[in-house]
Each structure stands twice: as structure tokens, then as C-alpha cells.
Write a structure and sequence with these properties.
The protein is mainly beta. 6% of the residues lie in helices and 27% in strands. α3 links the parallel β13 and β14 (223-226). The two termini are 23 Å apart.
């Protein structure tokens, strides 16, 4: 994601080893808007600058960032037909209800927010390859997410979560799936996770030993990020079934790490920051 040099420092930070997906952070300087002569990108506080865009300039904008404590984004957002990247930095945000528009959108980032639902227009963005979004719960997603067949990276941060919408497992081109919960509650890994054959990164609050049969079928997986890999009975032989991995990042390293590594000879086991 492009850095807006000369106008504002937008930090592309790595959210620790377990949060290794670059997330554009909230602007640290309070100004109304930032743009340049090309007017291909616009970074604005709240939506004042968005409302003031001339019709002649709407087609020029390919990147848009909106920030404030809370935002009510107008329906004119959907008129930006050439918009490719949309980032929203607001804990409280209300997005337009329309379903049509932004057909060329490739990146949608609303990680700072806890949206009650993914906006309807997002499900129509067939060019979307990357989505990073904060949501209230598992009901915030509906089956239409399966429309996003070009999606390669998906990060979902929930306030609470019981299960994932099954349509996620129909995203055949998905390579990176990151699921986080505010309270760290562990969830069950759905059996249809095995349909995501292209998956190379999986971050999810799951119990590895319980789901080893499913993980063993994700043979393209390179990196697994989980709360821990400790096993109550001390038998870690089951981990040999995922020796195709390159890295396992855990929040808590078990006391018998050396014993675990004897079963994971080719895998780097590290503590997530």
C-alpha cells in the first residue's frame, strides 16, 4: 500500500510475528485533507473533503483514506468508480447502504472499526484481493462473501466469535486467512477449511492437537499462528503430521519446547510478539 510521502506519514507496521500483516495506521497529524496535483489519492478527516470533490475529479481518485473518531460516510463514496484502495480509520463508522459502485476496488481496510456487518457494496467488488476489517461477531458476515473469488488475503478481527461464515471456505484463491478475537476465545476449525487449498498462512485461535487432522490436509501451508501448542498428555508425536510447515508462531512457548522441536525438525517455532 503506497505511503503518502510529503503529505503525511502513514506507517506500514508489522503487527508482531503473530500479526505480520501490514496494516495502514491512523494518521498522527490532524489536518483536513492531503492530496497532490494528480488527485489520484485523497486522505481526509471525516468526510468533508469527500463531499467537496468536484465531479470532474471523482474519476481520478484511486486511493482514499478517511479518518476521525467517528464517520458517517456519504453515498457519494460509491461514485468513485476508479477507486482501488479504501482505508477507514474510525472506531465508529457508518457506511452507505448502496449495493452498487466501487466495482474496481482491490483493497478494503477498516481494521480500526467494529462494523456490525460488512457493507453490501463490498460483496459486489469482484476485483477485491485484500480485505482487513474489524467486526462485532460472526453474524457480521453473510454468504455473499463467496462472491469475492479474487480475494487472496483476509483479516477478520471480531469482538466475539463462535463460528465463521461457511462462505469464507469457498474463496478458492485465498492464500492468507487471519482471524482474531478481542477476548482470545478459542474456536473450532471448520472441516471445510480443507477447501482452501492455496492457503499459505493461517492465523486463528484454535487448539492444534484437536484439529491436527484438518491442518495436515493444508499441505501448501507455510506459516501457522496459534495461541499455543502445549499438549496436556505430553505426547507431541501428532505434530509430525504438519512437518511441511516452515514456521509456527505461538503466543506462549511451552516449557518442554526442546521435546516439541524433536517432532518438528524442519519447523521454526517462535514466540509471537
Amino acid at each position: 500500500m503506497r505511503i503518502f510521502i510529503g503529505f503525511i506519514a502513514i506507517i506500514l507496521s508489522m503487527l508482531s510475528c503473530s500479526r505480520s500483516i501490514p496494516i495502514m495506521e491512523r494518521p498522527s497529524v490532524h489536518k483536513t485533507k492531503y492530496t497532490d496535483e494528480s488527485k489520484s489519492f485523497l486522505l481526509c478527516k471525516n468526510c468533508k473533503a469527500l463531499n467537496a470533490i468536484d465531479d470532474a475529479d471523482k474519476d481520478k481518485i484511486t486511493e482514499l483514506g478517511i479518518y476521525d473518531r467517528s464517520c458517517k460516510i456519504p453515498s457519494s463514496l460509491l461514485d468513485l468508480i476508479n477507486l482501488k484502495e479504501l482505508s477507514i480509520f474510525a472506531q465508529k463508522v457508518r457506511l452507505p447502504d448502496g449495493k452498487d459502485g466501487l466495482e474496481n476496488l482491490e483493497v478494503f481496510n477498516a481494521y480500526d472499526s467494529h462494523l456490525p456487518s460488512i457493507p453490501a457494496f463490498v460483496y459486489q467488488c469482484k476485483q477485491l484481493t485484500r480485505m482487513v476489517v474489524g467486526l462485532t461477531d460472526g453474524n457480521s458476515i453473510d454468504e455473499n462473501i463467496s462472491n469475492l473469488q479474487k480475494l487472496e488475503h483476509l483479516t477478520l478481527a471480531f469482538q466475539n466469535l463462535d463460528s465463521l461464515e461457511s462462505g469464507i471456505f469457498e474463496l478458492r484463491n485465498l492464500r492468507e486467512l487471519v482471524v482474531r478475537t478481542d477476548d482470545g476465545t478459542r474456536i473450532s476449525l471448520a472441516e471445510n477449511i480443507v477447501e482452501l487449498e492455496q492457503l499459505t498462512l493461517l492465523e486463528m485461535p484454535i487448539d492444534v492437537s484437536t484439529h491436527i487432522d484438518l491442518l495436515a490436509q493444508l499441505t501448501n501451508l507455510k506459516k501457522l499462528v496459534v495461541p499455543g501448542i502445549a499438549c496436556s498428555n505430553g505426547d507431541y508425536s501428532h505434530l509430525e503430521r504438519i512437518n511441511f510447515l516452515e514456521e509456527i508462531h505461538v503466543q506462549e512457548l511451552p516449557d518442554d519446547l526442546d521435546g516439541i522441536k524433536s517432532h518438528l525438525k524442519n519447523i521454526n517455532v517462535v514466540q509471537a510478539n
